[in-house]
Every structure is written in C-alpha cells, then in structure tokens.
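Hi, here's the filled form for the chain we discussed.

Project: internal
Contact: R.S.
Residues: 130
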Amino acid sequence: MAHRPLSPHLQIYRLPFAAILSITHRLTGVFLTLGSVLLVYWLVAIASGETAYLEAQALLGTWYGLLGLFFCSFALYFHLCNGVRHLFWDAGYGFELKTVDTSGHIVIILTVVLTVITWFIGILFSGGPA
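And the returned structure, exactly as it came back:
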C-alpha cells in the first residue's frame, strides 16, 4: 500500500473567513425559512381573533420568543447584507483577497448595527421590553 500524505484535518485546518461567511449565509437562509413559519403563525393568530392574537403575543413576548425574534432579525440582516455582497461579486467586482475580507467585515458590522437599531426602535416605540 502506498503511503500518501493525508489531507489536513478540520481540527488543524483553519477555514478562510470567506468560507465561514458563506456557510453562515446558507445557515441564515435555512433559519429564515424556519422563521417564516413563525411569521405565518403570528399572521394566522391575527386573523383568528383577539384570543389567538393575545396567546401569540404572550408566546412571542417570553424570553425565548424574544430570543427567537432577535435571531430572526439578525439572520435577516446578515442574509440581506451578504446577499448584496454576492450581487457585487455576480457583477464581477470585489474578488481581490483584501476586498473580500473587508467586505466580509462590513457585512458583519452592518448586520450588528442594523439589528441593534431595529431592536432599539422596537423597544422605544413599544414602551419597553415585554
């Protein structure tokens, strides 16, 4: 049997930043699909009357409901910002390694900023956290 070198194992191989963002983009897409089920539940509760709506609001107002909504908004903004980045790539811009890393960091910063702004405005206009 020939002695061939082994490929680097995941424990010692460090994924490039762009690969991590690519995997995260796919995961946020899956999470948004699951989050759309939550949105449909909320819309059906609205259409079903006051009792169903109040039950849905009570569920979404719990700590785990708010945490789920927070992750949904974070996933939405990450997927949006990274999608815009992909549109630039589709047009042939931003393939230089430095630009890829810089745009990746911009995606993360914008995601955090947009999520924080959304939740700040939401808390401000709702009168405080549930």
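Let me know if anything looks off before we file it.
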